Amino acid sequence: QIVSKLAQAIQAHPAYRNISRLQVEQLLEQAPVGEVLIRPSGSRGPGHWTLSWKVWATQPRPLIQHFELGE
Question: Which residue from 3, 24, 33, 41 puts its CA 20 to 30 A from 18's CA?
Fold first, then answer.
């Protein structure tokens, strides 16, 4: 399988994690506001990613916005 240059760049990015949405949310709960993580999309398959951004540190849970990205 040929991996695109975009996929290689995303996977090499320091914010990339090969983890689930739940794991991303757990990591971002402890992170400062503005922190971003990128992960593979759980529903859209190869060539798609989700960018998760901690927008606000509300209680009892922070506000985390998820954006779908694709090639």
Answer: 33
